[in-house]
Amino acid sequence: MDPDRLSPEHAQAQLQAIRHLMARATHYRALSAPTALVAGLLSVFAAYLCWRTAESTLLLPPMMFVWLWLVVLVIVWVLNAYFLWESARQRREPLFSPSFRLAMSSFLPPLVTGGVLTWWVLQTPDILAIVLVWNVCYGLALLGTQAYAPRSLYVLGWAFLLTGLLLTLPYALVPYYAVWFERIATIAMAVSFGGYHLAYAVIAWRSTAELFPRDAARSPKRYHASSVGDDLP
Amino acid sequence: MISPDQIDKTIHERGRLAIMTLLASRPAWAFQDLKADLKMSDGNLITHLRTLHKAGYVAVTKEIKHRPQTTYALTEAGRAQFQKYLEVLEQIVATGRQPAARATDATLAPVG
To answer: How confident is the prediction for chain A on average, in pLDDT?
Structure first.
């Protein structure tokens, strides 16, 4: 496009194309590292409570199980909203930025599906099926953000999805609902929502430091080699 | 009035503008990722990157992790110039929203 002929309409179209390309290419971490840390710790604690309750009552009441994890979910959501707001404030962006809306549009369908399926599964006291649904739906929600999320979120999504799919194995092996299914469900929650989130928190913290090499931004001379040809592939 | 001279011609070219936009969106990009995202040929992409590098807008880093990898990042000058380019575009758009200014601004009128 010739700069001499740049009309306001062309400039507007150019700006829109730039915004679109940037929104698509910007890494958006919908799950912050501090949130993942808290989610991981709370999940391990909630799983421990479920384990102790199952020991004393033999069968874990499904409603109690769901309510306990709902409390964890609400705490984590409120915290995540705070951290995202804080992060957006530091970048001088609104919380409901195009990236946030894009992330929500990817996140919501699997999460709503998970909620409805939980209600449906609750008609039978099958806690393992609930855990299966949560892992699969959360995994799909995370994978839905892969186009603009960092690789660690993509890996996290696959970890949840595979865990959920693995939880179909007990149903294939045993033709009835065994008591130990609940133990597996509790362990799966501790490993996935607890362990995976903790691992993600560590990776996210480390990669944030690696992704923003201050030298590259502040000392361009170090990277800006004088010989052009030698630096290109 | 916005003069055409205010438009950075190095950035303004379509391919290079796309490269600058992507580089502005993340701290660093691997060559292969840039190529995949922009769907450019190796030769085309290298030519544009050389031009931007020569202008001092793009920094190049060669590393050997598991295999040799070349990454590209905006320099401070590149980021500033890109920001300036966006501001000029915004000014042109703003000028277009003022009917009186638009009528008198011959340099911005579409030609042909």
So the answer is: 80
**Rounded (to 5) percent helix, strand, coil in chain B:** 60, 15, 25
For residue B73, the chain A residues in CB contact (below 8 A) are: 216-217, 223
DSSP secondary structure letters along A30-90: SS-HHHHHHHHHHHHHHHHHHHHHHHHHSS--HHHHHHHHHHHHHHHHHHHHHHHHHHHHH
Asked whether the beta carbons of residue B76 and residue A217 sit closer than 8 angstroms, the reply is yes
Residue with tokens 């306001």: A8
The structure tokens 């905006």 sit at B74
Smallest Cα–Cα separation from A184: which of A47, A24, A79?
Answer: A47
Overall pTM surpassing 0.90 (yes/no): no
In which order are the strands placed within the sheet that holds B29-30? B29-30, B68-74, B58-64
Question: A189 pLDDT exceeds 90?
Answer: yes
Structure tokens at A79: 């915290």
Tell me the one-letter amino acid at B98.
Q
| β-bridge partners, B69 | B63
- The answer to ipTM > 0.90 is no
Whether the predicted pLDDT of A229 surpasses 50: no
